[in-house]
Amino acid sequence: MTGTGGMKASGAVMAVLLLAACGGGGNGNTPVVANETVAETAATNAVAAAPVTETAVSFVGTWTGPEGLSFEVEPVASGGFRVRNQDTLDEKTMFDARQEGGTLRFVRRGQALVARPGTGAETGFKWLANKRDCLIVQAGVEGYCRD
Fold this sequence. Notes:
- This is Lipoprotein.
- It comes from Sphingomonas arantia.
- Keywords: Signal.
- By secondary structure, the chain is of the alpha+beta class.
- It has two domains: 3-48; 54-145.
- The protein has four helices and eight strands.
- It has an eight-stranded antiparallel beta sheet with strand order 1-2-3-4-5-6-7-8.
């Protein structure tokens, strides 16, 4: 394309890619742009379908919470993760999870949840306060850290 029309479409595609890379407003959905073109849709879909990167590996391992709770993450061949989770003193569950941006999304006991990286202080638990490599499901309610 030549002229300003080509520049406009190119700029719009870059804006969609930038929004997608930044999380599109934090709600976990692919950003929706008014009057989205076919090229913009293709660019957005390409970002959403990007392969799991090195960031995903950072979720792998055993994360320890207060009072013996744990969140154990292992990769699976399909590209996602399998989690063994002791989130209560009485019950250990297993479920699948997937990376979405810098978070780990999963459904546990019918509830959609997100684990995000953070610090021990952000977990809201005094037992984890000095840790730096943590996963937070809900601050003050559920958090896990690596030693």
